[in-house]
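Q: Start with the shorter request: fold the first protein.
A: Done. Sequence, then structure:
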Amino acid sequence: MSAPSARPAEADAPFWQDGGALLCRFGGETLRVEPWGADAVRVRARPGLEIVEPHVSALLDPAPIASASVSIDQRSATLTNGRIRAELTIVERYGADVKQEVVIRLVRADTGEELLSETRPHFAGPRTRNFKALASGSWKLEAHFKAHDDEHLWGLGQPQHGRMDLKGTSTTLLQQNAHAVIPFVVSSRGYGFLWNNPAVGRAEFATNITRWTAEATGGLDYWVVAGDSPAEIVRAYHDATGHSPDIPDWALGFWQCKLRYRNQGELLEVAREYKRRGLPLACIVIDFFHWTRQGEWQFDPADWPDPKAMVDELRAMGIETMVSIWPTVSAASDHYRTMTERGLLLTTERGVAAVIPFPDKDPFGPGFFTYYDAFNPEARDFHWDLVRRNYLDNGIEHFWLDACEPEMRPAHPENVRTALGNGAEMLCAYPLLHEQRYREGLASEGRTGVLLCRSAWAGSQRHGVILWSGDVWSDWDWFRARVPAGLHAGMAGMGWWTTDIGGFYDGHGGSDAFRELLVRWFEFGVFSPICRLHGFRVPDGVPPPEKGEKVSYGQDTFNIFTDTGGPNEIWSYGAEVEGVLTELLRVREALRPYLADCFARFARTGDPVMAPVFYHFPEQTDAMADGTRYILGPDVLVAPVLHSDAGEMTITLPDGETWLHAWSGAEHAGGSSVTVPCPWGQCPVFVRKAATARFGKAFPMLKQSQ
C-alpha cells in the first residue's frame, strides 16, 4: 500500500501537508517526512510519484501525535514534533547531474542545534540521496550525512571489530555468523538513527562523511529521535520498535551446553551428575545432529527414543530443555520435494540453489543444504507446524535458532530470490521473520518459551530473543571483543544477550592456557545477562599445544568431525577449575533476584541489562570509547579480566557515587582509580554503596562492611 502522495491542485510549491505529514515532490523524487512517536520523525524518499510501503519494517505504528506542526513556503518547509524539527530546503547545486535538490536537516526544536544533516560528498555529486536504478522499482541507494569530529556512536547490532566507539568504522550490513546487523545507532550528539531497511549494504562513520548504503532497495526509509541522554534515546527506540516480554525466571540461572550431546542417555547422565554434585543447572541444550535429516525438524528416534520422558525427568530436576533447530533443508529430507513444489524454499536468480556446505549426520546424505523461505508466510507456517508436532508436543518449548542469518557460502545475496524480492533487498530481515513465527506459535499455545538466536534485526527484541555472540575462537583477542559486542547489542535493543563461555573453536581442555582463558571468560559469563557454557572443545586424544604455541584446531577437527567434541562440563577441567567455577555459580545464583529486577526494567523501559558506563553516567565522557568495563543493571560495575597472567587491575570508578569492592568490602570514592587483586574467580566488581544491602548473599564481605 502506498502512502498518500497526491499534490493538492492549489499547491504552487513543491511542499504540501498530508494530515500530519510533510510531503515534497521535486526533481523527480517524492519525499515524506512525518512524526513517528514522541520527539521523532520518519523520513522516506523514492524516485517517482509515490512512497511505497516496505515489505518489512522494524517500526510499529505509533500513537497519534497531536502536537506536530508543519510550516511551508516556496523554497523550504519544516515539520516540528516535540524536541525534533525537520527542515527541508531547496539547495542550489553546480554539478552536471542536477542544479537543485531538497536537503533534509534535523535539529533540536528548542535550540536549533543541528543533530543530523544530509549532505553531498562533493559539490558535483553524487546527490545527497543518490538512487542508482537497478530496475523499474529497485535502486542502489547511498544516503550521505555530515560528519562531526566530536561525535561518538554506539549500537549497530553486534560488530566484531572490538571497538566501543563506532566513529571511524566501516561495517557491512550483511547478517553473518557472529556479525548480527541491527541498523540502529545512538549518537553522543543527542539523537538515535534507525536505518529502516533490510537491504544488504554498509554503514560508514568516517571523519569526512557518514554514509549508509543499500545494495538494492525500493526506497529510502530512516527514523530519527531526539533525546537528552543515551537512555532516553534507547527507550524511545524500544517504544518505536517494540518492548521485550518478561523473561522466565529459570533463564537467569546457569545453562549447560557443548557440541554435542549425542543421545538421550548421555544428556540425562550429565544433568544427573550436576544434581549429584549439588551444582545449580537451569537449562541443558541439545545441539545439532539430534535430527534425522536437516529439514525434517524432528528427533532421531535411534538416539532420542522418548524425548517427552526425557523432558519430564529434566523438568522434575528443575532443568529446562532447549533444542537447536536450523532453517536448513536437505535434498534428501522427506519434505524437500513438497517444499520445492509449493515454493517454500529460498531460490536463486540463476544457477544452483542457495546453500551452506556442511557435514550431514547421514554419511551417505548430501552435505549441501538450502533454506526455507522465512519471507513466505506459508513457508513459515509449514516449518512451525513441524516444529509444533515434533518438539512442542514432546514438551520442548525453548528453541536455539542457529544459522538463522541465513548462513550461505558463498555469500552472494544478490543471487538469492525470496518471496518478497531479491536477497540484496531483503536478507537482513530473515532472522526477524523467522523469530516472529516462533513467538506467534508459542503464544498461540500459551507457552512462554525462550529463543536463543545467532542473528537478529531491528525489532527482534519484541519476540523475546536472546542474541548470542556467535561461533568465535577461544583466544584472548576474541574474548576481549565480546565486551563491546555485548554492549553494542544492548544499545541496539538486544538486552537479552549471551556469549559462548570459553569461546566456540579450539578450546583444549588439557591446556593450561585455555583453562585460564575459560576461568576468565566464565567470570564474564556470570556477570552477563545470560550465563551459558558452550563450545566445540578439542576431542580427547589430541595433544595440547606447547606453552606459547598458537595452534588452530577448528577446521581440522570439524573436518574429522567426532560427532561430539571434548567434554565441557564444570568438572571437565580439573579440581582447581571446578572449585573456582563452582564458587562463581554460587554468586550467579545469589544474583538472580537482582537480575530479575534488571530484566523486568528492560522489558518496561529498554534499559540494557548490560550497559556501557556512560549509559548510567552520561557525564562520564571519558567512558564513551571504553569497552573494558560496564554496568550490570544500575548498581554493579564489572571489569572483566581481559589479559592472561593478570594478578591485579586498576579500575577508574564512575564519579558521583561511593563504591564498594565486592570481594573485599573496601569502600572507594567515585572518580578514583583503584588497584585491586584479581585472583581466579574474582574479576574486579564494584557495587554502589547505596545498593549494597541487596548483595550480601552474593558477596559476603559486603555484609561485614556495613
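Q: Next, the second protein, separately.
A: Sequence, then structure:
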Amino acid sequence: MDELLEQFLIEGPEQVQQAGEALLALEGRPDDAALVDQAFRAIHTLKGSVGLFDLPAMGQVLHVAEDLLGAWRDGRQALSRGAMDALIAATGQTERWLGVLAATGGGLPADADAVAADLVSRLSRALDGDAPVPAAVQATHIDTAWIEALFRDRDLDPARHSMVTALRYVPDAGCYFRGEDPIALTRAVPDLLALRISRRDAAALVAAQAHDLGAYDPYACDLVVELLSAAPPEAVRGPFRFVPDQIQLLSWSPSPSPSVPVPSPALAEGPRSLRVEAGRIDALAQLVDELVVAKNALSDLAGQMADGLAPQAAAQILGDRQAALDRLVGRLHRTVMGIRLVPILPLLRRFPRVVRETATALGKEVDLAVDGQDVQVDKAIVEGLFEPLTHLLRNAVDHGIEPAAERAAAGKPARALISLVARREGDHVVIDVADDGRGMDPARIRRAAAARGLLPDRMLDALTDDQVLDLVFRPGFSTAEAVTDLSGRGVGMDAVRAAVGRLGGSVGISSASGQGTTVRLVLPLNLVLTKVMVVAVAGERYGIPMDGIVETARVDPDRIRPIRAGRAFVLRDTPVPLLSLAALLGLPEEAPVDGGPCRAVVARVGGDLVAVEVGAFVGRRDVVLRPLTGLLSAMPGLLGTTLLGDGHVLMILDVPGLIAAAPGDTAPVGQGMP
C-alpha cells in the first residue's frame, strides 16, 4: 500500500473521532466556541488529507461539512438539530468509508457517489435552506454537459481522442490573497486539447459588461476553468495537488458509455500498523542482543562437547544455559506483549455517535457514558470488539430502553442512560454494557424459547431465571415481535458470543425487571501466548485454556450416577453434570482403563459447574494461539490452533461454546439433579 495512504488511514480515524466527540459534546454545550473550533479543525484537516487521493465523494461531503461548521464558528448561523444530525451522519459515513479503504486497499464502494450526493444535499439545506448544491461539490458523474460541449466546440476527433482527461477548476474566492494564480496552474497542464475560462456568476458578468464596477469585486476570484487534456489523470492532477477540493477530475470517452470518476490506483492488501513508543523498541533491541549472546553460548557448548566434554558436565552446563534462555524468552514475551498493548478508550469513544444515531432512528433520548481510562489490551482484541459492542449497544437502545411515555409512567427520567465501562482484572479486561431500561422478563424468554423449540418443556421449567437469560445467546433466539433494520432478525446475541469467543473471551448477562440489563464481556489482555491443559481423547490431543478450567478431577465409577439422559457426580456437596468430550466432538467413546477413575475437566458454563470427561491429562503448555480463518472461523467450540514442539497441530477448544452447540437433550444445565 502507498505509504501516504497508509499514514492517512492511521490519522484519518483519529480526526473523525475528534470531530464526532466535539459534535456530540456541542449538543449539551451549544455555545462552547472551543468545541466548534475543534470540530472545524478536524474536518478541515480531513478534507485536506482526502484531497491528496482520488476520493471525490468523501471530499465533497467534507467540503460542505467544513462550510457549515465555518458558518457556526463565524457566528453566521446558529446551531440546529437538523444541521447537527447532518454533520454527525457525515462523520459516521466518513468513518465507514475509511474502514472500507483500510479493508480493501482500493477505492470507495460503488454507491459512494449516491451516498455523497444525499449527504451533501442534507448539509447544504442546513447551510443555505433549500439552496441547490454548489457546483463545486456536485457528484462528478452528474455534470458532463460541459465536457461534451468542449469536445464538440473544439471539433476534436473521436478516433484520435477516444479517451481524454476532463478537469473543472473552481478556484476559491480568496485565492488571490494566498498568492495562488489559477491561470498559472492551468498553463501547467500538459497536452492541453481544449480550454474554456468563464465567470462563475452570470449576473456579475452582465454588470461588468455594463461598466457597473460597484457590482464587481476585482479582489475576489470568480473564475471557472474547464479543460480537456490528452495526458493521464495523474499528470493533469499534478498542478492542482494543493487545491484538490476545488477540482473535478474525470476520465471521459466520447463513446456512448457513461463517464466515470477516475479510480484510485490498484493498491495492495489493506494496512495493519501499530504506533509504538521508541523506548519499547529499544528494550526489544536489547533483548535481541542478549538472545544472540545466549545462542552463541549454546554454540560454544556444542564445540566443547565435540572436543570431548564429559556428558555429566555438558548436561549441567546445558541446564544452566537453558534456564537463562527461558528467562530471556519470558522477558521477550512480556516486551512484545507491551508493544501490542493499545488503549481501549479510543475504541469506546467511537460509540456515542452509534448510540445517538440508533436512538434518533427509534425516536428515543439516550446518553452513553464511557469509561476505560488507562486500560490497555492487545491490538487484536480492540480490532475484534467493534462489531459485538455495536450490536450490544444497538440492542440496548432498541430492546432495553423503554419509550419516553413508559419511562415516565415508571418514574424514570425521559432521557435514558447506557454505560460502557472497561476495567482490568488481573490478566483480563472486563467490559460492561449496562442500561437503565425495562430489564429482561424471564417468563417472556421461556415462552419464546418454547415457541422456537430450543429446549424441551421439562428442561425449560427446570431452569433458574439466570439460566433462562443465557438462552438469548442461543442461535436463532429472539423475542422481537417485529423485524426492524436494527434487530428482530433472529441473529445477533449468538454472533456476539461467537465473536467474543474467537477472541478467547466469554459473555454473560444479568438483569433486574424494571431496573435494566448488564452484559459483561471478559477477555484476555493479549492473544499471543495462552496457557492450556492438553488432554487426550480417542487417540487425539486437544487443548483447553487454563483460564476456563475451575479444576481437574478423578472420579471413581461408583460416584457417577445416571440422571435422566445423562450422568452426574457430587463434587464437595455440589451435583455436577458429567459430559463426554468424545461425544461432544463426535468421536468414539473410550472406557477407563481397568475400570479406573474417570478423568474430568471441571468448567463453569452459564454460572454452573460442568465436568467434561477426557481420556487422559497430557500436561500444561504455554502456546501461541492462532485464530481460525476461513470456514472454520464460524465453527462453534473452537478457539484456534497452535503448533506443538513435535510438529503436530493442536486444536484449542472453547468448552462453553462446545457445550452450547450440543443438541438440546445433552445440555448439562438445569437437568433437575437432586
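Q: Describe the second briefly.
A: Residues 23 and 302 are 66 Å apart (CA to CA). The radius of gyration is 32 Å.
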